[in-house]
Amino acid sequence: MISLGIIGTNWITEQFIKAVDETKTFELTHVYSRTLEKAQSFIADLKKQNIDMSTDLNDFFKKDFDTVYIASPNALHFSQAKLAIENNKNVIVEKPSTSNIQEFSVLEKLAQEKGLYIFEAARHIHEPIFKKIEEIVDKHRDELSGATFSYMKYSSRYDAYLAGKNPNIFTTKFSGGALYDLGVYTVYDAVVLFGQPEKVEYSAEFLSSGIDGSGSLTLKYPNFDVNIIIGKTKNSYMSSEIYFGRDTLVLDNGGDIHHLDWADDNKNVTDVPTVKSQNPMDSEAREFARIMLEKDSATYDKLLGYARIVNRVLEQARTSAGLVFEADEEK
């Protein structure tokens, strides 16, 4: 197994560690946290033993492990990933991997120069259910006439924001907001299924902090549009859809996809048989490890290409809406 260090001791890191344990792809050996208490509590909850713990990032990256998984606030991804690569570590970084395309380009170039891997952890595109969507789109590509993706989920941190607190996810300092937290899933949907859009327009509903609480995004392709609805300040139970003229593929969600239906022109709705991963991070853990062990450059280049386009689209969307992150000022 590949030795793994982690940055971040939150729920998503715990889910990733459970995924690598289930798939026997990576072995957790090192943990970085700002406090020793958090690291100890995290390791205890996972029932792990003999895990090296660090509270100093430079010290952490000097340790002997192969790959780091980064799940810190968005604005910290770039500096932590850069330091990791400079210390000869492969990187798996939660989406979005950077705050802007310039940062992404720096990481991509540095990893290439060092002969290392950098993966953006867009876990849902690796799941069997998404592979089924790709199969259907490819089969009916000649009839493809657009899509609508929706991912709106009331944030567990929004009440704290309304109470006058300043959660990271609702600040421009940490590159938060609806687009960069939930919208990235739907942009990945469009990019993987349809390619790079010709034009990007984002209309955002801004909070007083200057961040987007929700919004609507349009990706223009040569023969159709993709419309995206996202939000962290409200819930939506609207399905997502991919259109093929008279027929429609219905997804129960634009980001966390659990079920597919095929609806025809006569309003007949048929269940599309597929498989949903019990742990949604199993598939990406398995794929990242396989690519590294088999040195599968073709698949790696394809995934890196997706990530490059997605990060560019996200920045184009922000620019069109006038959404500025503090990281932009450091260019």
Automatic annotation (TrEMBL):
<dbReference type="Pfam" id="PF01408">
    <property type="entry name" value="GFO_IDH_MocA"/>
</dbReference>
<dbReference type="InterPro" id="IPR000683">
    <property type="entry name" value="Gfo/Idh/MocA-like_OxRdtase_N"/>
</dbReference>
<dbReference type="InterPro" id="IPR036291">
    <property type="entry name" value="NAD(P)-bd_dom_sf"/>
</dbReference>
<dbReference type="InterPro" id="IPR055170">
    <property type="entry name" value="GFO_IDH_MocA-like_dom"/>
</dbReference>
<feature type="domain" description="Gfo/Idh/MocA-like oxidoreductase N-terminal">
    <location>
        <begin position="3"/>
        <end position="118"/>
    </location>
</feature>
<protein>
    <submittedName>
        <fullName>Uncharacterized protein</fullName>
    </submittedName>
</protein>
<dbReference type="Pfam" id="PF22725">
    <property type="entry name" value="GFO_IDH_MocA_C3"/>
</dbReference>
<dbReference type="GO" id="GO:0000166">
    <property type="term" value="F:nucleotide binding"/>
</dbReference>
<feature type="domain" description="GFO/IDH/MocA-like oxidoreductase">
    <location>
        <begin position="157"/>
        <end position="223"/>
    </location>
</feature>
